[in-house]
Amino acid sequence: MIDFIKRNRVKIIIAAVSVVILTAAFVLGGGGETPLPEPTEPAQEQAVNTEEPVTETAAPTELPTETPSPDPTSEPTAKPTAKPTAKPTAVPTSKPTAKPTAKPTPVPVAKPVETEKVSTVCTLSVRCDVAVGNPDLAPEKAAVVPQDGVIYALREVEFQDGETVFDVLARELKNNGIHIEYEYTPVYGSVYIEGIANLYEFDCGDQSGWRYKVNGKYPNYGCSSYKLKNGDRIEWIYSLGI
Length: 242
What we know:
The protein is of the alpha+beta class. The chain is built from 5 helices and 7 strands, in the order αααβαβαβββββ. It has helices at 2-7, 9-28, 41-48, 139-142, 165-175, and strands spanning 121-127, 150-158, 180-185, 190-196, 199-200, 209-214, 233-239. The strands form 2 sheets. The chain has a 4-stranded mixed β-sheet with strand order 2-1-7-6, covered by helices on one side. It has a 3-stranded antiparallel β-sheet with strand order 3-4-5, covered by helices on one side. Strand 3 and strand 4 (190-196) form a beta hairpin. Helix 2 crosses helix 3 (41-48). The chain is rod-shaped, with a radius of gyration of 79 Å.
């Protein structure tokens, strides 16, 4: 209603003024037929507006919602922190443990009883007595011949079963740094000794050379064919007559 008055106050004032004038004219004129002045445009407007005004219901003015200012003294409301969803830990599937296979108890193998080895020995000596001071011996050869005629003094040596006179002679001279030279003769099927300690066949004559004896006897076959027996006595001798 207040809004309506405010909007039409000019018209209301004009209408009021017109009413006052008409009333004054009516009173002063004594009620004669004094022609009424033509209503002015404002009167018409008043006549038009004399109708009961339609009351308009003003739409309620929406008051702005004030956002309350945060209280600086108040503690900020902590937003709930979303807890990370923990991934399910994969439980390792335990593999079935293989049962250890029981190892068979090794059966002890009976070792063969080692029989005590019987040491087989023989004696060996190498001499050239006939070459000492021999007139047929060349001077350069005389210088290498030992004055006592002993090239390898008599001693006891070991040998393996199956070894021959030649095997023992070659091994012992080599171990003691004494020269030996030989060759294999197919005619006799045996090894022939050509020289020992640089003293060769024919150095002291046409029949001179190296010979061997076993137990005091001259065998009738080559030294590489004579197999030794335990206790044999081997003698190598430089001889003037083969």
